Amino acid sequence: MKACIGIRQENAYDEEKRAPLAPDHVAILVREHGLRVVVEPSAKRCFPDAEYEQAGAEVSPDLSPCRVVFGVKEIPPADILAGQVYCAFSHTMAGHPSTMPMLARILESKSTLIDYELVRTPHGRRVIFFGQFAGYAGMIDALWALGRRLEWEGIRTPLGEIRPAFEYESLVAAQSAIKEVGARIRRDGLPPSTAPLVFGITGQGNVARGAGRILRLLPTVKLQADELVEFSRAGRFSNGSVYSVQFRQRDLYEPKESGREFSWSALHRRPETYRNRFEKFVPFLSVLVNGIHWESEFPRLVTRDFLRSLYGSDTAPRLRVISDITCDVGGSIEATVKTTPSGHAAAYVFEPRSGEVRDGVGGAGPVIIAIDTLPSELPKESTTSFGDALTRFVPALAGADYRAEDASDLGLPEEIGKAVIAHRGRLTERFRYLEPAVSGAG
After folding, report:
1. Which of 357, 351, 287, 295 is CA-nearest to residue 323?
2. What residues form DSSP beta bridges with 287?
């Protein structure tokens, strides 16, 4: 009998159009690996059901025959069947109350949960990810929001022609449109009141790389973080270019103890011994694109108190847009007070003096973009890229012996084995710390 896998519909978010595998991946699994693939029907998925059927899959609302079910985002507890294996971005590792009902149902149903975020190389690098596409969409949306904000201020620029990522039919179409805007900036320049237009990107991972690739479609001049302040004060800049600064961890944090040098290992061992260094650069940024992984033990990058001071002066700050790709509410960017779905209502303004939030781009504070399904704004390309990484693991996942009591005896590849959060109604050893949070979900 053929091993059967399933692809579930995405119903946790209305705007979610991605899938874990595209039809081309299904064709490989069916023809080359002899798997049976069942696809749950979906009217909003970026690839129509018919394309999966043409690739050799069955389209059916019944996923109960499937040994392993693949999804993208969190799975509503009511959809979890007893004894099945689920692969998804569960967002359960932090123990947040919003995700604990799902984990509680996994345990109650004696199912297995495998999280893509935990699939890593021995050196800790993620193997299966959408991050690059979050970076693409996050920067496209930042350019769109900046154009709209400048228009609200009465400043017309070529940036006003850029649309949010979800409006383009493809990533190639978005890139082509941004290149055209870049050509106009190079030829005609930006209004002098906007210069220097400086984009700060935090992080060095897939998110930051994706954002940087989009920005470089404009005439971009790269600066080092420690050059930024003097560069801005010297006034020797062009309105025919935009400027880019990528901030590494040594640019974001510094030791509290005077005379000590920055140490990556010391920062991660004892983050409480470090303080914020980034806020000295923020007044010189026009746009901040935040793509760095952050934990609560680390100093915040931008606090409400800092923004209150920045926007409390008589001179209007340069900072107009924060695209918080990390989307951590109350996290490294304290002005990220809510997330929003994709769409024209995705932008809001955080007003530091009052703490109020206004939907849109107008107000006395920075425009915030905080969309937690950013890669879904480029659904076909992000699905294809994700599936390229996932497909090689699917045969092993489909062929594992999930009757084994211990998760370490499933016979999974090492990268996947470490990503098992729960198996047969029990949390695996690495995730026993979640027991109190799961208990509270009841």
Report:
1. 287
2. 199, 321
Does residue 254 contact residue 274 with C-beta atoms inside 8 Å? Answer: yes
- CB contact at 8 A, 104 and 427: no
Report how far residue 265's alpha carbon sits from residue 358's, in angstroms, rounded to the nearest whole number. Answer: 40
Judge whether residue 423 has pLDDT over 80. yes
Q: What are phi and psi of 379, to 5 degrees?
A: -70, -40
This prediction has a pTM of 0.90
In order of 10, 315, 360, 377, the CA distances from 143 in angstroms are 28, 23, 15, 15
Return the exposure string of 265-285: e unless at least 16 CB atoms fall within 10 Å of the residue's CB, then b.
eebeeeeeebebbbbebbbbb
For 230, residues 6+ apart whose C-beta sits below 8 A from its C-beta are none
> φ, ψ for residue 351 (rounded to 5)?
-95, 105
Contact 92, 100 (CB under 8 A): yes
- Of 329, 330, 370, 364, which is closest to residue 350 (Cα–Cα)? 364
CB-facing half-sphere around the CA of 141: CA atoms within 13 A: 37
Contacts (Cβ under 8 Å, ≥6 apart) of 233: none
> By C-alpha distance, which of 74, 137, 157, 87 is closest to 116?
87
Which domains occur in the chain, in start order? Answer: 4-119+381-441 (3.40.50.720), 131-377 (3.40.50.720)
Query: Rounded CA gap, 136 and 158, in Å?
Result: 19
Tell me the per-residue pLDDT of 198-224, one tens digit each, with 9 for 90 and over.
999 999 999 999 999 999 999 999 999
Tell me which residue has tokens 């990522």: 165
Angle at 293 between CA 261 and CA 365, to 5 degrees: 95
CA–CA dist 20, 90 (Å, integer): 13
Q: Which residues contact 142 (CB under 8 A, 6 or more apart)?
A: 199, 211, 287, 289, 321, 323, 369
Phi-psi group of 235: left, alpha or beta (phi > 0 → left; psi -120 to 50 → alpha; rest → beta): left
Alpha carbon dihedral 138, 141, 146, 152, in 10-degree steps, equals -140
- Confidence label for 80 from pLDDT (cuts 50, 70 and 90): very high
Q: For residue 333, give the nearest of 264, 273, 285, 269 by alpha carbon.
A: 285
Three-state SS at 205: coil
Query: Whats the size of the chain, residue-wise?
Result: 442
* Least trusted range by pLDDT, from 81-85, 170-174, 234-238, 248-252: 234-238
**Distance (Å, whole) CA 405 – CA 403:** 6
